[in-house]
Amino acid sequence: MVDLTALSGARRVHLIGIGGAGMSALATVLQGRGFEVTGSDLKRGQFVERLEALGIGVTIGHAPQAVEGADVVAVSSAIPPTNVELRRAHELGLRVLRRAELLAALTAESAVVAISGTHGKTTTTAMVARVLQAAGLEPSWVIGAELNEAGASGHAGAGNIFVVEADESDGTFLALRPHLAVATNLDVDHLDYYGSFEALERAFAAFVASSEAPPVVCVDDEHLRLLAPEGALTYGVDPAARLQVRNPVLTPRGSAFECFLDHRRLGSVELGVLGLHNVRNAAAAVAVASALGVPFEATAQALRRYVGVARRFQLKRELAGVRVIDDYAHLPREIAATLAAARQLDAGRVVAVFQPHRYSRTRLLGVELGRALWDADEVVVTEIYPAGEEPIPGVSAEVVWRSARDRLGDRAHWAPDRSQLATAVAAIVRPGDVVLTLGAGDVTALDAELEEVMG
C-alpha cells in the first residue's frame, strides 16, 4: 500500500538518478511545491542542465554523504540496491521512496488525470497538459519527455489538476488514485516485469477500473475495447466510439479531423503534427477536455498550437538536403506509425536507422521489429542499446536486420558498430531523403554525428 503522506513534514528531498526524464520532472514539481531539492546522477545531460538552471543542486557521481541532511530519498527504477547513496539512506533511517511512491504522494491531494498506454502516452499527456493550461486551469504535469513549448518535462501549476504520464512498465500507474484514467492502447511489452501478456492486461483492467470518473478508453485498440466499462468515454475512428474521429486528412504540413460526441458534431481539429496515431492522441485530449468541462473551441485552438515533445518525430537538422527526424519509436506498432507519418512528407526516400532497445525486447520481438521496417525505402540496423541489461547469449540485432532483409533485400543494411553508424548512413543517403532515427537509445545523437561526417 502506498503511503500518500510520505512527504508530510519533509523539507529536503534528494533524488538518486535525478537526470532521467521522469525523475527530473518530479524534481521540478517538488521545487515548485516549495521543497528543497537535491539529486545525483552518473553523468550530466540536458535534464541535469535544466535542473541546475532552476537552482537545483545536482552531484555528478554517487557519494554516501549526498543524502545526509535529507528528509526523504527518492530512487529511480534504474538504481540498484547496492548504490552507495541508497545504502547510506537506509543506514540513517531516512524515508526512501520509489519513483511510483513519490509520484503517488506528490499527487495525493490533486485531481489526477493519469494517461497510460503502450504507445502514445507521452504525446497524449503533453496535448492534455497544453489544452488544460490554455483553458486557464493551471494544471501541474509530469511527462516522460520535454514539452517543446515549455522546455520542461514537469511543472507545478496553481490549479488542482495534475496531469500524469502513468508508466505501466513497472506498475507505477497502479500506485495512483486517478480522478480520470486514460488508456491509449495495449500492446506486448514489459513482459520481463509482468511475466505474461495476460498479467499486463489485468494490470490495465485494474488501472481503467481505478478511475473515479468514467475512464477515457481508445476503442480502436482490440484489447482495450474489451476492458472499457459501461459508461466509459470511448474514442477513436471506430463507429462505436462515443468521441468519434471522422474524415481524417493527412498532409505534409499536418493533420485534421472532425469530432463527434455521441453522434453530435463538435467541430474540426487541425494539428501541426503528422500521422493518424497523432490524430488518435489528439482525440484522447479532446475526450479528456470534454470530461473536465473545457469548451471544444478552446480545446481545438490549443491543439492547433501544439508543437510536440522531444524525440517524437522531431526535426533535428538538415544536412546537404537531407532532413534528419528523430523518434523514440522502439516497438513494432510505433515504428510502423512513424514510417506512415514520414510518408505524409513531401520527400524522396525514407531511410530508417533503427537501434533496438534492450536484449530482452529484441529476443521477444526481433522478427516483428524487422517487419515493421518494411515500409522504409532503405533500412540501417545497428546493434542493441542495452539500457542497463546484461547481454543475453545468442541475442543480437542481427535478427531484426535479417527480418527486414526478407522484404527489402539489399536495401536493408547491417551496421553493428555503433561508432561507425554515421559513416554507414552517410554512404546511403542523397539529397531529398528523410532520415528517421528510431529507437529509445543513443541513436538520438546520430544527427550531430552525421553533421561531422557529411559536413
Number of helices: 15
The total tally of domains equals 3
* Low-confidence runs: none
Helix percent band: 25-40%
CATH topology of the largest domain: UDP-N-acetylmuramoyl-L-alanine:D-glutamate ligase
Look at the helices and sheets and give the structural class: alpha/beta
CATH superfamily of the largest domain: Mur-like, catalytic domain
Structure description:
This protein is an alpha/beta fold and 455 residues long. The protein folds into three domains: 12-98, 3-Layer(aba) Sandwich (Rossmann fold), CATH 3.40.50.720; 107-304, 3-Layer(aba) Sandwich (UDP-N-acetylmuramoyl-L-alanine:D-glutamate ligase), CATH 3.40.1190.10; 314-454, Alpha-Beta Complex (Protein-Tyrosine Phosphatase, Chain A). Helices cover 33% and strands 24% of the residues.
Topology of this protein?
Elements: E1 12-16, H1 21-32, E2 36-41, H2 46-53, E3 57-60, E4 72-75, H3 84-91, E5 95-98, H4 99-106, E6 111-116, H5 121-134, E7 140-147, E8 152-155, E9 161-165, E10 180-183, H6 191-194, H7 197-209, E11 216-218, H8 222-227, E12 233-236, E13 243-251, E14 254-261, E15 264-271, H9 276-291, H10 296-304, E16 314-319, E17 322-327, H11 332-342, E18 350-354, H12 359-372, E19 378-381, H13 398-408, E20 412-414, H14 421-426, E21 434-438, H15 446-454
Parallel strand pairs: 1-2, 1-4, 2-3, 4-5, 6-9, 6-10, 7-9, 10-11, 11-12, 12-13, 17-21, 18-19, 18-21, 19-20
Antiparallel strand pairs: 7-8, 13-14, 14-15, 16-17
